[in-house]
Structures are given as C-alpha cells and as structure tokens.
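Practice set, problem 2.
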Amino acid sequence: MSEPGERVSGYLYRLLAPNPGPMTLEGTNTWVVGDPSRGAPVVIDPGPADRRHLDAILRVCQGGIADIVLTHRHLDHSESAAQLAREVGCGVRSADPRLQVGAAPLAGGDLLEVAGARLRAHPTPGHTSDSFSLLLTGEDGGSRLLTGDTVLGRGTTVIAQPDGDLRSYFSSLRLLQTLVDSEQVLELLPGHGPRVGEPREWLAYYRSHRLERLDQVRQALAAGDRSAAEVVARVYADVDRSVWPAAEQSVAAQLAYLARADHT
C-alpha cells in the first residue's frame, strides 16, 4: 500500500498526517528515522489520534518502534503518542513530563541511535517552552535538522504566548543557525510544510521577518493601539482572519518582549 508521504533516504521517511488546516498547513509531518529493515526506527511527532495515520506509521516502521520523540506538546504533534506507544510497547520521549511514557525525559544533548542514523536533541524554546529540535546525522554523512514548529517549511510560526517567548525564540534561531553552519546541514525537516533545502537563507528570513513584525508592532503602539487585538487588526489586516487568534498570541509575545526591552 502506498503511504501519504515520501522516502527521503534509506533511513528517513516523511508521513503526512490527515489534519490540514490554517495552522497545520498540509498536515503534521511525522518523521520516521532509521532503516526499519535493519532495526526498529524512531518516530518523531506521530501526530493526531487518527487510525489511518497510525496504521501508516506502523506499516512504514514494519511494526517495530524503538522510541517516540515529541518536538513539543501541541496535540497536532503529540495526541497519538501514548496510544501508539501502548500498541508497540515502546516509550515516549518528551521535554514535557506529562507526555512521557516509560522513558526518560528528553534533555539537551541526548543521543538516540538507530540503524543508519543518529539523533542529537537540542532545546529550542520559543514557539513553546518545551520545544526541541533534533540534529539528524546519517551513515552517509548527511546532516539535517528536524525543527518541529520552531521553523516551518512554509510561512512563519506562532509564538504561543503565554507558553512561548520571543526572547527565547531569537536565541533558538541563533542556535539553529550555528548548527546549520557547524554541521553543514543539508536541509530543515519541519513539523509542517515541505523540506527546506536552503536552511541558512530560510533561518535568515525567519529572523528578519520577526524583526520586521516587531517594527510594525512599535509603529502600531505609536499610533495608539494598546491591546494585542488592536495591533493585529492593524498589522495583520492583509492576513486571513482565520489566523488572527494565533496572530494575537504572537503579538502578545512581541508586546511582552518590547516591554521587557524597555525595562532592561
């Protein structure tokens, strides 16, 4: 049976969850890391509790999973994790202890090794406080970064105030840029959207976009806006209103960032 995804290499497969929407784009990307013909792989972000998607994951993994790893707590990435872990008898690794199942919490520097590849965990808070990215290095020498929702493959992400934090987010972007340069990263593997084949340029765009939005928020404040809703109505006037609630979260994070900057 053909799966709704793509085989990137012998040790990397992308499955697309059937949950498209304004915030999830085409759907959540579930990443299977490791060659299942040589050993149980790791599943990154199994996504929503959709039976069709879980069955597709099991087929790609050939029935065995070494570990499930969550890039962050949001349900479009984590909802099915506990169920899938029960079905195959594996653990769930997460920085959020509420989502852990029979495994140690995910921590910076953790190394996961599978057939054909290894993963190194890096905390990248900002989108959420528990956000992690994973540096994937294959036996062929290629390096990639799984970025969860810290960096998407299309558009820009939300700073999920109050759990998210813009100052932390800027620091995480700098860390990702450092990893791209030091590890010669070939591409970014996001939680939503397509793979990004120009990681350095995409990260630079992400930073410049945030700085541009900050300037727009400053201008809105200077024009008399005070609440996040008022700023969104001005700054995001040309954006589909279906994403305004999410934009309010990011604007709230920007307002908190600017208020802190004014007092430091």
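Problem 2, part (b): a different protein.
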Amino acid sequence: MNNKFKRHQKVRLLRAPDPEYVEYHEELEEVEEKPTIEKGMLGKVNLILQNGQYHIEILGNDGNILAYCSVHEDDLEAT
C-alpha cells in the first residue's frame, strides 16, 4: 500500500473532520468550551491506519496538541 504521507509529517486539513470522531487531548477534556476543529488547521501524522486513513494530531497555534482524529488522505495536504 502506497501512502501519500509519512509518520510525523506536518499536514493541513482540507476539510473539517466530523465532530463525532474528534477526540480532544486529555488536558482539554475538562474544559467547557473546546476549540472547534476546522478546515485549514495544522496537524501531524500520528499513525497510518489499516484502512488507509491517517490518525492526526491537531495542533494549536502554540504547537500544543488540541485533539486527535482520523482523516482520509484526500482531506490532507503536506505543509
């Protein structure tokens, strides 16, 4: 299977993920107003899943991890 991206590669979301499948980082679990994960946010490939999707760490402006989600490679671009 040929993958478009490699582990730990920085990527940009081309489409906002389904909020149902977004898992917020443990530091944000207790926060009332969680940040919205939107199109254009930066992330880093955490894992390459068996179904051909990528498990992405969504990064905030300060570089800290906000959330995790699985994303199809067509919804990502390299930065």
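Answer key, part (b): The mean pLDDT is 92. The chain has one domain: 10-78.
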